[in-house]
Each structure stands twice: as C-alpha cells, then as structure tokens.
Design a protein that fits this description.
homotrimer, mainly alpha, Ammonium transporter fold, 15 helices
Chain lengths: 454, 454, 454
Amino acid sequence: MKTKYLLPLAAVATAALLPTMGFAQEAEAIEIPSVTDEVVWIFNSLLFLIGGFLVFFMAAGFAMLEGGLVRSKNVTMQMTKNVGLFSLAAIMYWLVGYNLMYPLGDWAIEGYFSGLFPSWGVLEPVYLNDMGLEAADDAGYASTGSDFIFQLMFCAATASIVSGALAERIKLWPFLIFVIVLTGFIYPLTASWQWGGGFLSEAGFSDFAGSTVVHACGAAAALAGAIVLGPRLGKYKDGKVNPMPGSNLALATLGMFILWLGWFGFNGGSQLAMGSAGDVADISRIFSNTNMAAAAGAVAALVLTQLFYGKADLTMVLNGALAGLVSITAEPLAPSLGLALVIGAIGGLIVVLTVPLLDKLKIDDVVGAIPVHGFAGIWGTIAVVLTGGYHGEAVIGTQLLGIVAIVGTTFVLSLIVWFILKVTVGIRVSEEAELQGLDTAELGMEAYPDFTKG
Amino acid sequence: MKTKYLLPLAAVATAALLPTMGFAQEAEAIEIPSVTDEVVWIFNSLLFLIGGFLVFFMAAGFAMLEGGLVRSKNVTMQMTKNVGLFSLAAIMYWLVGYNLMYPLGDWAIEGYFSGLFPSWGVLEPVYLNDMGLEAADDAGYASTGSDFIFQLMFCAATASIVSGALAERIKLWPFLIFVIVLTGFIYPLTASWQWGGGFLSEAGFSDFAGSTVVHACGAAAALAGAIVLGPRLGKYKDGKVNPMPGSNLALATLGMFILWLGWFGFNGGSQLAMGSAGDVADISRIFSNTNMAAAAGAVAALVLTQLFYGKADLTMVLNGALAGLVSITAEPLAPSLGLALVIGAIGGLIVVLTVPLLDKLKIDDVVGAIPVHGFAGIWGTIAVVLTGGYHGEAVIGTQLLGIVAIVGTTFVLSLIVWFILKVTVGIRVSEEAELQGLDTAELGMEAYPDFTKG
Amino acid sequence: MKTKYLLPLAAVATAALLPTMGFAQEAEAIEIPSVTDEVVWIFNSLLFLIGGFLVFFMAAGFAMLEGGLVRSKNVTMQMTKNVGLFSLAAIMYWLVGYNLMYPLGDWAIEGYFSGLFPSWGVLEPVYLNDMGLEAADDAGYASTGSDFIFQLMFCAATASIVSGALAERIKLWPFLIFVIVLTGFIYPLTASWQWGGGFLSEAGFSDFAGSTVVHACGAAAALAGAIVLGPRLGKYKDGKVNPMPGSNLALATLGMFILWLGWFGFNGGSQLAMGSAGDVADISRIFSNTNMAAAAGAVAALVLTQLFYGKADLTMVLNGALAGLVSITAEPLAPSLGLALVIGAIGGLIVVLTVPLLDKLKIDDVVGAIPVHGFAGIWGTIAVVLTGGYHGEAVIGTQLLGIVAIVGTTFVLSLIVWFILKVTVGIRVSEEAELQGLDTAELGMEAYPDFTKG
C-alpha cells in the first residue's frame, strides 16, 4: 500500500476543510409566533424530508436504469460513476452550490460577505443552524436543513442525467471533474435565475419542479458532452445505426420504477408547503397528475412502437414513462387529470420520435437521456401555457426565454468545460479499452464475472 | 417510420379525450371548521400520500418478483406487461373505475348525471377539485386527490397479481385488454360492493385492506385466465410436473422485499385516518401485525419445506412471506401480535400445501399467485372471525358471502372476457414463440443479451 | 409430502403460542391533556412509522449488497438467510427482545412479573395496547406499536450485518439458530445497557443511533463467527489472498443505495420526536449530516483506491459510503456539515485500510462487514467526543467504556454460541458443498440457472 500518499493527502484535505469547520454557526434564534405556526412549520419541513428521501432514491433509479441499458462490460464503471457523481454533488452543493443558488443577499454572483474569507461571498459553504428550536431560521417557511437536503437532491439529479448519455466511452475522472463544475457552479447559477429569485423568476418564467431548470439543464450538459466526446466505436458505421442492446432490462425497469417513485417527492415536494388544507390538496393533485403523465407516456410509447415498428419496445416504454414524468414536471398542479394525460402522452411521443433523430445526427446518447430530459423537458415547459401555470400567468414568450437562457447557458458553459477537459486530461478511453470494456480495462473489476460470455 | 399512423391516432385520441378535458371542474368550496380540523385533514391526506407512494412501489415489487421467477427468455415480456398494466390501470381507474367504485350518488351502476354526456353517470372520469383550499371536498375526511391516488394503487395491484400467473405464454395485447376490463370495470364493480358502500358492506362483510376485495379478486381473474390459457408447453408431461426454475432469485427476493415494504402502506393506509392519537396508534398496531404476519409466513414456509422436502425452498419462503401479508390484510388491526403470527404462519402453510395442489390440477400458475393471493386471501378473510374484526361483528357466514360474491363474480366475468379474447384475437403465442421465448419471438429484445446461454 | 410431520409440528407450535395468545391486553386508558399534546404525539408516532419502513427496507439493502458480493453459486443461500434472519428477528424481538431491552420495570434481567408464567419476567412477549385512543400508553412519547416496529428494525439490522461476513460456507440452520440467540437475547441485553436506561446510559455513554449499539455489536458477532468458522476454501493459499469477486455489482450498488436511503430513517428516527420545530430542525440536520458522511466516505474510498492501487475500486466505494454512514451514526446531530464530511471520510479511509488488514489476519469477511460496521462504528463512537455529542458531555473514557462493554460482551457471548453450535450441530458445510456452491449442494436451487457458466 502506498501510504506515502496518505500524509500529503490528509494535509491538503485539512487545509481545504479548516476554514469551513472553523466558521462559527451564527444562527439567530427565532420565535415561532403560535402553536399553529409551529405545526405548519413542522409539516413544511416534513414535506422536504419525505421529498428529500424520495428524490435521493432517484440516484439509485438512475444508476439501475443506466446500469441496465449499458452492455455488461461497462456496468461496474456506470455504477462507480453514479455513486461518485451523487457523492460529489452532495459535497459541492454544500461547499458552493446552495449559497450560490439561494444567496442570502443578492441572487447572483455578487453577494454578502462574511466568514474567514470575506471575498468568498456567496461561494461559502452552507451552515445549518444550531440544534433545537433556535435552528429555525425562517419562521414562515421550514427548517434550513430540510430545505438543503431537498434542494441538494435536485442538483444531484442534474448530474445523473449526464452520466447515462455519455456511458461506455468516457473516462471516470474527467467525468467526475465535470460533475464538480456542473453541481457546484453551472446548475446553481442557472437554477438561481429561476429559483433563487433571479431574472427569469422576475420575468414570470414558470417551471414548477424543473422540467427546464433540472431536466433540460442536465440534458444540455449531456448533449455538449456527447458532441465533444463523439459516439461509441462502431455505433454509426456505413450509414447504419448499430444497436448496442442494454445488458439487463429487468434492472432498467427497476430503475424506471424507482425514478417514478422518486418523482412523487420531486414534484410533490416542490409545492414547498404542506401546512394547510390547500397545500396538501395541491400536493395530492400533483401526485395524481404526476402519476397520470407517467402512465400516459408509457402507454403512448407502447402503442406507438407497436404501430411504427410492429413490436412493443420496452426501452422506449421505460423512456416514455420517464418522458411523461419530465413533461409534467414544469406544471404538475394546474392541469386536470385529462390534460396531464395529454401532456404525458406527448412526452412519450416525443421520445419515440426523437431517439432515432439523434441517431441520424450521429449523437450517441446511450440511454436516451437527451430526448427524455431535454426534448420532453422543453415540451413540458412550453405546455405550462396550456393552463397558464399555477399562477395563471405563464405565456409562451417567457417560457421560451427561460428555456433558451437555461439550456443555452448550460450548453455553452458545458461545451467549454468538456472542451478544456478534452484538450488537457482527455475525456475518452483508448480504443482498446472501449472495445474490451471499461470495467476490466479501466477498473479491473467485472460487474458480472460469473455470467458474461466471451 | 410509419408516420401515416400518427394523424388518425391523434384524431382518435383527441376525440376520446375531448369530453373529459372540456368538463368544468365543479368544485364547491368548503370550509374546514377549525384549525384542529384542518390539522386532522392534513394528517389524513398525508397518510394517503405516504400510503400511495408505498403501494405504488409494489408495482415494482410485482415486476421484480415475476421477472425473477420467469425464465430469462421471457423477462423483457414480463417487464413490458408490468409497466403496461400499471399504466393502463392508472388511466382506466381515472376514466371509469374510481367513480364506478365510489359513486357520489348511489353505489352501483346507476348514479348521478352530469357533464357533457348525462348518460355516462358513474362512468365519467374523475375530476380533482380546484387548486388550493377550495379543493377539499370532504371537510371530515381527506383531499380527493390523495384518496384517488391511494385507491388507484389497489386497483393496479389487482392487475399485477394476474400478470404473474399467466406469464411465459400469453400474448401482450390481449393481456393488456384484459387489464383494461379488469381495472376499469370488474374490480371497481366488485370492490364497490364493499368499499363503495354496497351490499356486502351493508351485510357486515369485513375486509380491512382487501384480502378478498383486492387479492382474492386478482387471483380469481388469474385462475380464470390460467384455465382458459392452459399450461406452458412441457410443464405437465407424462404425469410429471416439469420444474421451470426462475431465472433470477436475487431479483425475486428484491421484489418480495419491495412488496413487504409497500404493504405497510397497503394496510396502514387503509386505516383511512391519522389525525387522532387513536388512529395513529392503530396504524402502528397495523404496521406491527403486518410485519409479524409476513415474518411468520416466511418462517413457516422455511420450516415446512425443510421438513417436507429436506431442503429449504427460497421461492416458497418468498411466497410464504407474501401469503402471510395477504392473510393479515383482511384484519391487520384487531389481532394481537401472537395471533398475527398464527394467521401469517397458516398463510405460509397454505402456500406450501397448495402450490403442488395446483400442479396436480394442471393449472399452471408461474409464480404461485393463486395460492398466495387467492387461497391465503380467503384464509385471511375467514380469519377475521377469530377477532370479530375491528368492529367486532364479523361472522363466518357474512365472510363467506363476501368471498363467494367477489371471487365468484370476478371469476365468472373474467372467464367470459378471457374466452371472448381467446376466440377473437387469441390469447396465446405460437408454440414456436413459446419455445423460443417471448422476448425474441414477440418483442425482438432480450432482457439479458450478454448472459443467456444457448 | 410427509404430512406426518404436520400434526406434531402444529401441536408444538400451539403449545408454544398458547400462553402468548391467552394473555389479556392490560392496556390502561390514558388521557392526552390537550390538542397540542395530541398533535405532538401523532408527529412522534409518525416519525417512528416512517423511520420504521425506511429501516425495514435496509433488510432488502443488506440482502442485495450481500447477494451482489457473493459468487453466483451462493446467491440463493444468501437470499434465504437474509429473508430468514429478518423474519426470525421479527419474531424473537417480539417474543423476548423488546421487553428484555426496554423492560417496563427495571432495566436488566430481573423485571416485573405478570401473565400466565410469572417467572417469565421481562422475557414475556410484547403486547400492543388495545385499538383506538386508549392505545397510547405514554402520553408524552408515542404509540407503543410505532416504537416497537422502529426498534425491531434495529435489532434485525444487527443480524443482517452477520450474514454478510459469514457467507459462502456457513450452514443455513446453525446460522439461523445464532440469529435467534442474537436477536432475542444478546443484542437486547447489550442494547439495554444504553437504550434501556442501563449502566452505560447512566455512565454518560453517547451513541445517538447505534454506531456501537447496533453496528459494532453486529460486527463483533460476525467477527466471532468468522473466527470459529474459518475462511473459505482457497481464500488464503500459499501466503496469498485469492480474490473471489462478487457476482453482481449492479445488485451490490443497489443494496448500498437502499441502505443509504434507509439510514435517513435509522438516524433521523433516532431523534425520537418530531412534534416541535426544534425536533424537526434536528431531524433535518441529521438528514443532512448523514447524507454528507455517506458522500464523504464514498469519495474518500474512490480517491484512496485510485491513489493506492491506481484504480478506483467500486466495492470499496460502496463500503466507503456505508462506513461513512456507520461513522456518523453515533452522533449525526451535533457536527457541522464540514465535520460530518471529515467523520465520514475517515470512515471511508478506515475501510480502505482495514479490509486488507483482515485478510492479513486470515479472517475471511466476505463483504467487508467487520471493517464497515465494526471499525467504522468504533471510530464513529469515538468521534462523538469531537463535538461532545448532542448533550455536549461525551468524553473519551466513557465512549471507550461503552465500546469495550458492548463489543466485548457481544464478542464473547457470540464466540460461546458459535462454539457450541460448532461442536454440536456443526456450522460449516462440507468441502464438496462449498466448492460446488451452497445453492445446488444445500438448497438444490440455483439463483441464476440460465446464466451461470460451468
């Protein structure tokens, strides 16, 4: 064991962490005016905790979906990337992202100054308040910790979207470096424009739980990566698309179901309040619409693949359900159940139509993440105008502005980061490694050593 | 791509959906009398939301259990059927089922008239109320949306039971058509006799969370299908039962655990209220009894297979746990923990005894769904008389009446539907397709393309 | 079928259960003083119910983790053991454990006398109170049923830890007998010293959710078993460690994610109250710290295996995340997020360093349970002194006393039980069975009959 690495590593880690640990926790005690207000506060916080663990579980859902859709020789790598990306997102969102996205002062890069490094501004890490009643920093909302854990999961989901699209040929560490930039900086920046009270929010852009803010953002980062990275060897050859079937469709189906489950937290928790009859009725409505859109997306893909290709296509059905979920995410509250069905079904239709389209453009998106999260996300964001959104004021121009701003910015920034990574450390494994499989070539560990043939 | 299908399809879909989307949402604003009542209302609705997502996850549990118990050549088909059936159930229960089961007016086929088609009566789709506080349509109960999402999951579970029994030889689309009839009409009809305030409810039939209403109903539909469909090729040959072992027992075990998890919501949520100390104490008791019955069913199957066959049998243990759960479902509240253990253990015993029995009758139930959900469900419904049920009034005669009415009606109606499907579109794949495996023959997609031998 | 076994078996079962079912339920009706107190009581009970189902799901997490890390020829056995151990734990904790751990009278072996067998004392089974409001036996805490189901899951987790370490060579029934002793007696005894108000609690030992009480206890039982049982054939040969790679790393990753999910309930529920703003703020903080420690453990293992071995090691990353979780479990409330990161990262470091160490000692721990739950558990218990714990009074001496008392006692008692089992019924399968694989040799059932090679 090369213990010689241990000491310098520890020193670097300590130096990096010292300031964050030395900070005093400057919680100001608050008073919650009445028992009723306290009950509301508990319900609101509980909503974030339940939503938080449900959306957390989506990390497993993404891992299983992607692990099932890649070939068996790349499964260990896909698992490593998914555990790694979630863990790095959790750290980066604490270290930078949360305060960049929800600055206590101004909403954008400039912010309030405090702590050891006054110049840090909004880039300082998150502090949770002291233990106990004094912890509540916003008597009219919820506990900071519950808000943090809930919002963190959205940030991590953005990165999970990227990992599927770029599977089977990307190097581990450059991918994880990109995740650090995405979850620490890019997502918090663009998300702050809407959820941090930024210019999109002020302009009236409406995206309830993140069809664009989360899903299309992740898809834009994935698209940039897929372009810079290039398709898998042999995927597009002699003008033909060479299918590379996923190695475990039971696992992929499990992943889809876990994501569907997590989406109840994703959309339901985005109500941000559960302390009144009206709020819990809204959450119930959100649950019902979310479920309906997923069902409609799945059925649409089931019927359409049967009609188009003469055979129902399970991977399309899985992606259809997910596209239905992404589509309803921008506005899961205002639609009737019938409209939620239509919105979700169109999401499923979009996936069936655009997965082949990407292949025509020779953009190799291994799991269909760009159609599911990107195209269906854009559709869902536009579909808000069908109801006007829960505020009743969403208009097409503002919706398009939000899409262009977030997708465009994420795409351009991601393109730059991917390009820098490409020309510096390189982002793609060698041809031999790709053909052999990343598991043995890069990690020396097969996912299914007892099963795999040849 | 055969885009020529798109236009007519869209036209049909629009025509079908237009009336449901044109309906006004005629919510009447309610007033919740006091803060205390509002808190109760929130707790009740929250119970349905938590119960709803737990029971939703049972769809994944069924899929994994069944996917693990079929041979690898039929796994893609099993996944497709399970995603499809849940999605169709979600749509049908909205379009017809919920209002058929819980009509706002009378309980049965005739009902109140409203909307575009006055003649629809109870067959009209569900409308959730408006957003916000006005949404509460029953100030003494819970939000309509939370009740809808919770009840929907029970309807879908009924269909999941069927898919396992008929695996490995049924065609996809006829199966899904049956699901449409079952979830839209048969289950809502028979369930309304008990939970919609119908004649069984009035007669004093007691079935807390659905040992008969859900599980035996699903098993009856499965039994009818298994009879009409016939056994798998080679299953019963020369008087011998030819074992066809499941392809992934780890997955099947996961499915069982997910179902066990979901059952906390299934039985706990069926308390239908969480806004008082008494209600939450009851839910806690239900959790404890449910867990105990599952444990006892598993241990019973473990011990009995060791005694009978000299070897513990994992698939029996999994089904034993599930049979324990089904057995306690008719009355998870009234028994002591000791009695819950006995009820669950007898459930496990029933599975061990009746799985071979079905084989003797040459009824080919691939995953053991009929013993688990049918026989154990009937046992659980009868076992209510051991405590008298939570109302203390259950008697054997009424319990048998309920079983006969629901199981008998479901069986006869299902038999008719299966028979019609058989003589019209046909329900069984060709011999070649069955031998080759449904995944490649019917869907052109293997579940484990890298692993499967031969 | 050997039905001759049925009658005597039923007779024994009835005799054993009769007293437990004959007991009257001597619930005393309580009064909850005010509406506010009732709401608090509901929130507290709800916390245990949510925590309960989350920690329940950890049983699936352990099963999948272990099932993924053993070779394919032993997967059916691993599944059988995990379903069996959870089920037996559920029964034993009811029959003996809970009242041994939380006696209504004195905390230790001697206790109050009641029921049919006055001599049973604290060894009598658990009775839940009557249905309804009267059920509440402690107006200032929560429903008995919710406390029971929550605490039961901790007991079962202890046994799950053992099953992984001893995989691939232990006989089924001796293992299950050990589980009966561990969950019925050993764990409840040592846990009562802390959580039952025993001498460790009085001495000021601080272990919030069980880094030592649960995890190191389970690891100590596993270590004793691993020593008595000996390593797998061929594991240590000619001074070399022969790697025996796990058969399904996707499944193992799923197991890790499920455990991470469950840990929100494990640590969050251990706040034991959710009925005030301060409590829910604390739970939120616990969620955030728990997540951070897991992420840090995973990243630490990822970075360290890359540095030490030149390749990221997925199994180490999975165990690193789990070690982070175990490490923060003794005190998930008091640390800042930065300190939680450090505590979790050191947990990950410990796993990377000590997994090879155990191999040097020729102690064969198949899944790394002893490093993860034992060494990281001890580290986490010591790390409480960094903050002083939530009471601010934890000191190193008392922490060490608690570790020595619980780990030492569990180890010695387990060693005795394992030794008795070894010299009586034998605990190890034959060499032939081990080489052939336990699934076919012991159970006659392959987990993956369609895949496995050779």
